[in-house]
Amino acid sequence: MQKIIPALVASGLLVVSSAAGAIDIIQVTDDDTFDGYPAISGSNVVWQHCDGGTGWPCQNGDFEILFWDGSFPIDPIQVTSNGFDDGIPAISGSNVVWQGWDGNDLEIFFWDGSLPISPIQITDNARADYAPDISGSNVVWQQCDVGDDDLCALGDTEIFFWDGTFPINPIQVTSNGFDDRLAAISGSKVVWEGVEDTTPPITTIDVYYWDGSFPITPVPLTDNDTLDWRPDISGAVAVWVGRLAGQQEILRWDGSFPVAPVAISAGIGGPFLPAIDGSHVVWEQDETLLGGSDIYFWNGVETINVSNDSDFRDEYADVSGVTVVWNGCWWDSYIGCLDDEEIYMAIVPTAVPSISFAGLALLTGLALGSAIWLMRRR
Fold first, then answer.
1. Pairing label, strands 120-121, 106-111
2. How much is the pTM?
3. Which of 30, 44, 114, 126 is deepest in the core (most CB within 10 A)?
4. Which stretch of DSSP H or E encloses residue 360?
5. What local confidence, expressed as pLDDT, does residue 230 receive?
6. What does the DSSP assignment read for 94-156?
7. Parallel/antiparallel/unpaired status of strands 157-162 and 219-220
8. Quick one: which of 319, 294, 327, 335 has its CA closest to 33?
């Protein structure tokens, strides 16, 4: 086991290093409350922070959005400051979007990175709008088409797009009788998952793609009787969680037709929650049957275990270039997080000792047997 230990505290920077010394991990936050759901673009990082409360789900407080420009000492800026929950941020350059409660339902908010901070409310309606993503000035999100319930119990969710121009006039990308959700965008290209089962159990989820052209014609990238979910996109390349040869894998599509995704993960430990930037992909992968998980980085050739500590649960990773961010906590299989979740960051060296897919499969199989995975608590 590669133990993560404190190494240096200086100028407000806490660095923790693996015992093997392969990758230095920067602990971005160090407080007594929840910090999670980070996103990164260049050196800029945003995340969701419990303000005035404790733990999950932020008892006696509310969630706010924090921003860090990557400079040291670490001194985050609080983007939001209100009595409502703001969460699930996304960032592109200095542009930030998030979902926030407005007193009635969830709406989408935007900040262009300028000071003084003056967020813009993109949506203002009687329906729940949530789970945004951004690329440049282009924003996508999902909206419940009936009612203001974020679970959308009375209807289904559809994908909306805004090109950043004013007056704000969002475009409805999908219009059907099933849930379209968790959209991601790169440039004008959009991917999302479509839940074609309208009643439990859910056995079919497919990935859809829109190239940004008009008239809008979504293209299914998958069409099968299994689960293909949680897509992300960078340029023309998309990744998602799917099954190949009976194994759950991170699948990568190079943007060409006919669609022929290839697996870039080892299929052991139920890899999930991928994010992509250029040729680099990160994901979360369970390392033990007791719930520990690590963050993996694929550089286009080989796979590297970035966090590599079975005593931690590391999750919700994002990547920009060779910089990876995630949230993690000391983990107990019966209790869960033993302390509050914090934000971590690592810059992955260009040459890092790594393990081959075959070696990872062999070692994990011998040590653990089969593994289970957890769905995102969103």
1. antiparallel
2. 0.87
3. 44
4. helix 357-368
5. 98
6. TEEEEEEE-SSSEEEEEE-S-SS---EE---SSS-EEEEEEETTEEEEEEESSSS-TT-TTS-
7. unpaired
8. 327
